[in-house]
UniProtKB/TrEMBL annotation, chain A:
It is a multi-pass membrane protein. This is ABC transporter permease. The keyword Transmembrane applies. It comes from Parafrankia soli. It comes from the Bacteria. It holds the Pfam family BPD_transp_1. GO terms for biological process: transmembrane transport.
């Protein structure tokens, strides 16, 4: 019998393949899978399983409780597209993204650069204070804002009144509510992204900037021409994360403060999904909305990847 | 009910005498998790014996809240467990607007609570969608009759469906006019003569507004998406949201006129264009003269007013000479228990909390209406019942809560409140076309 190689099939005296694989080879093949199994099983159970279940659910008419689940094909998707609520929520989510984008990029980048340029205890303290909104309970924060923005005696209107500006019903006026929700949510983006910009800045070689200073560059020129260009990749990543998380992170504030109102002006796709599934108990439409959200985000991610590749090639 | 039906079928083979003996034997030998509750001849359940230990889950939107609702509910549970040492209550808190969501998901997961406090605006959908056991079916008829004998007949009649009480009236309230007597005096109004009609309310509101405070607030824009005050206002103008045949009538002239009247309060400046929570905060801090909302907030309002201003109440204002027809709000207790022991234990709990002892706690500690005259009489000298007196006088005029047809009744109420009531009242939307458009949407949802 000729052994071809360790762990491969073997040939008998007449040259026929011997189907018995040595135990060691089997172990060698299975060992990587055994190591990966906990992660793969977890992914299957907690991510891909529910995803498939959601896809199946999106084809049904079901109220979450009744034993009757009717297969309705793509009716839920058709209704989502045809009725005005979901497209409206999608458009409002786009507005949230636009409103939050500066707070996900420009503001934290500026703060992170300032902190990075003045290392020391004071900088560390500021960094800790600025990070605080990330760890505060979102519902408690939202409730606090309700008192601040109360139209009859809230702090915001007291301040406006003190400087002679007209009082506002910040959360009750369709023209101001979405901006109020965006501003409340912005603190989380700023807080987290300062940290991420800080990590990117920490990787930069300070000697290059010292060299520029010796050559006579001003601090603004160093920031504008040396620091910011090196943060482009981080900014692109954080912009994409803003697109993904704008709807999710505004959800709590919308649920606590406005419930999508007034006149659906603060609605977003995640709150709409929640409303379909858990206020109207239309599980099929809620699931269809979830699938559409995944498809939209996947398309955006694909587009962004394509554009970056083309730019790299160009 | 399937299990019970199966057992009844099985007993057809057993002579009547043996069946009766077995029923008594089962009643005497209950277990903690089995079907130890026993059925009487009518299919109802006889009392548990004292050796039977049962734990029942009670879902309540008052439980665990930081205010009087939370402490009052805990007091009810404590008093019940003291009186029934064999039954343990496992309370579960939930936000008011999430009650149906929680019940649906718990039921889908196979573990609904045994008893749930469900708001009346969501009761119709709950009865349709959830495996609710009609509470009147649980005890023997004589026991039921004896228990409800002292309760408000008008409320029991209002909550009955097909002559049967599906959920027990529990924390009940009707709308009332709260007013700040100090702000009345400051505006030159006589607090002994509170307004009784919408016109008088507007006049008084404008007078108070003239002193720098806010005038009046009708709490029709409710963040919990309940339409009970909308119904009360529309009923008061001789209209309805739904007629006797279940047809949507919220775009008829009476309903349009009712909301136009409330909108006029805002347009005139007598009422601030804010939501109910903001108005309640303004009232309890002495910045709002009058507040028309549920008696449910009475205890909290009394606590807030204590030492700050004189709180008084008056009956729900009418539209001119038309009679007030307030509908009720608050909640009923529904049973979702699966087995007989838990059903009977659930009934014991419901029976206790709606007894004299229960309503005494509900009224004195939480501020809901005492639905037993004996309790109202016993507490008549208490400050809270004195303030509830105008509502108790209007109790006989209470109109049933009307629900939209179909399984999407909750969605219809949300559409009514968000797309019609709020834009009309707070943002000056034209009542006629707005109600017509929303009525069409609700008709489609009800189809």
């Amino acid at each position: 019998m000729t052994t071809l190689e360790a762990g491969a099939s073997t040939l008998d005296a007449r040259g026929h393949a011997n189907r018995r694989v040595p135990a060691a080879a089997v172990r060698a093949r299975l060992t990587p899978w055994a190591y990966q199994a906990p992660v793969l099983i977890s992914l299957l159970v907690f991510v891909y399983g529910p995803l498939v279940f959601t896809m199946v659910l999106s084809l049904l008419d079901w109220d979450l409780v009744s034993p009757d689940r009717t297969f309705v094909g793509v009716d839920n998707y058709r209704r989502l597209v045809e009725e005005p609520e979901f497209p409206h929520a999608l458009a409002r989510t786009g507005l949230y993204v636009l409103a939050l984008l500066p707070f996900a990029t420009i503001v934290p980048m500026a703060l992170a650069i300032m902190l990075w340029k003045r290392p020391g205890r004071a900088s560390d303290n500021y960094r800790s204070l600025l990070f605080l909104p990330v760890v505060l309970a979102p519902v408690a924060t939202a409730l606090s804002w309700r008192f601040v923005l109360d139209p009859l005696g809230g702090v915001a209107n007291h301040v406006f009144g003190a400087v002679g500006l007209p009082e506002q019903d910040w959360l009750g006026d369709p023209d101001t509510a979405i901006w109020a929700i965006s501003l409340i949510t912005s603190s989380r983006f700023v807080a987290l992204n300062i940290l991420l910009y800080g990590a990117a800045l920490a990787a930069l070689d300070r000697r290059a900037f010292d060299a520029a200073r010796i050559d006579g560059a001003t601090e603004w020129e160093i920031t504008r021409h040396l620091v910011v260009p090196q943060l482009v990749n981080t900014t692109v990543l954080l912009s994409f994360l803003c697109v993904v998380f704008a709807g999710q992170w505004t959800f709590t504030n919308v649920a606590v403060l406005t419930q999508g109102g007034p006149d659906a002006s603060t609605d977003n796709i995640y709150y709409r999904l929640y409303t379909y599934a858990f206020t109207f108990f239309d599980a099929g439409t809620g699931a269809a909305a979830a699938v559409l959200i995944v498809l939209i985000l996947t398309a955006l991610f694909g587009l962004s990847t394509l554009l970056r590749r083309r730019r790299a090639l160009g | 009910m399937t299990g019970r039906t199966g057992r009844v079928r099985g007993r057809r083979l057993i002579p009547a005498l043996l069946a009766a003996v077995s029923v008594f034997a089962a009643a005497a030998c209950g277990s903690s998790d089995g079907d130890s509750g026993t059925e009487n001849a009518a299919g109802a359940l006889a009392p548990l014996d004292s050796a039977t230990k049962v734990t029942i889950k009670f879902l309540s939107y008052n439980y665990g809240t930081p205010g009087l609702g939370g402490t009052g509910t805990q007091a009810l549970i404590d008093a019940f467990e003291k009186a029934h040492p064999n039954i343990t209550i496992e309370p579960q808190g939930v936000a008011t607007k999430d009650v149906l969501t929680r019940l649906r998901t718990d039921t889908a997961a196979g573990s609904p609570p045994d008893v749930a406090q469900i708001g009346w605006s969501k009761m119709a959908e709950a009865v349709q969608a959830l495996p609710i056991v009609p509470v009147q079916e649980i005890p023997p008829t004589a026991e039921w009759d004896e228990h409800v004998a002292g309760m408000s007949k008008s409320i029991l009649s209002a909550v009955s469906v097909d002559n049967q009480v599906k959920a027990m009236p529990y924390t009940m309230s009707i709308p009332v006019l709260y007013y700040n007597a100090d702000l009345f005096r400051a505006a030159g109004l006589d607090p002994a003569k509170p307004p009784t009609t919408l016109e008088e309310v507007k006049k008084a509101g404008l007078a108070i507004k003239g002193t720098g405070s806010e005038g009046v607030y009708y709490g029709v824009v409710d963040s919990a998406k309940s339409d009970f005050l909308t119904q009360s206002v529309v009923n008061g103008n001789g209209g309805s949201l739904v007629d006797a045949n279940g047809e949507v009538t919220l775009d008829k002239p009476a309903a349009v006129g009712a909301l136009t009247g409330i909108q006029d309060l805002v347009k005139s400046g007598a009422m601030p264009a804010v939501n109910t929570e903001t108005a309640l905060a303004a009232f309890t801090t002495g910045k709002l003269g009058m507040l028309v909302t549920s008696t449910a907030v009475l205890a909290s309002a009394m606590k807030a007013a204590d030492g700050k201003f004189e709180l008084r109440t008056a009956g729900f204002p009418t539209f001119g000479s038309k009679p007030a027809r307030p509908t009720y709000s608050g909640a009923g207790l529904a049973v979702l228990a699966k087995d007989d022991a838990h059903k009977r234990a659930a009934w014991e709990f419901i029976k206790f909390v709606t007894s004299d002892a229960g309503f005494e706690i509900i009224t004195s500690k939480i501020g809901y209406l005492p639905l037993r005259e004996s309790v109202a009489t016993k507490l008549e000298d208490s400050a809270i019942v004195k303030l509830l007196a105008p509502s108790l006088e209007q109790l006989d005029t209470v109109a049933p809560y009307t629900a939209f047809r179909g399984t999407k009744a909750n969605q219809a109420v949300v559409a009514l409140q968000d797309e019609a009531v709020e834009p009309i009242v707070l943002r000056g939307a034209d009542p006629g076309p707005t109600l017509t458009s929303v009525a069409e949407k609700i008709r489609k949802l009800s189809a």
